[in-house]
Each structure stands twice: as structure tokens, then as C-alpha cells.
Amino acid sequence: MKKSKLHSPTLNSVLMVEKTIQKYSQEYGKYQLWKKLPKKMMYQTYLVILDYLEQSGKIMIDKDGCVLWTWNPEGIKKLVEKGLI
Q1: Which letter, b or e, does each residue of 11-46 get, where b requires 16 or more Cβ atoms within 10 Å of its Cβ?
Q2: What pTM did the predictor assign?
């Protein structure tokens, strides 16, 4: 039985994907967004990064498959200061 080795993305790769998602938030689906990356990356690695960003609450993928940036630490900080969360 052959084990597949999962490739771990580098920090630079994660940051590149984050910046691209922020720039094109709500404009493209996963595949189209992958094509917009400034540097080439394996699609499997890209999907690992998307899973991480979604699990960490930085992105959401809507019912149409569109990727949107949701992370807003400044907005959260203001809500905490106002005692709303």
C-alpha cells in the first residue's frame, strides 16, 4: 500500500494566497482564483491553503463557489472595545 505524502505549504505561499484572495474577494471561484496567483503553485497545495484559511475563519466559500475574505481583526477589536463581543 502506497502512502501519499501531503505537501505542506510554505508561509510565503500562504501569504501569497491570502493577498490574492483579499484583492479579488467575491470575484472568483477556487479555480479562477488559483489562476490569478502571481506565482505558480500546485493546485493540491493551493487547496490545502484554502482549507486552512476556511478553518481558521479567514475566508468563506459561498453557495456559488465564490471565495471571499472575511478576516477583519480591526473590526473585531472595535466590537470588543464596545463590549459587543
Answers
A1: eebbebbbebbeebbeebeeeebbeeeeeebeeebb
A2: 0.81
Q: Is 11 left (phi over 0), alpha (psi -120 to 50) or beta?
A: alpha
Assigned domain for 8 exists: no
Domain span at 60: 17-81
CATH no. for residue 61?
1.10.10
**Residue 66 within a domain:** yes
Quick: pLDDT tens for 5-38. Answer: 666 899 999 999 999 999 999 999 999 999 999 9
CB 41 within 8 A of CB 34: yes
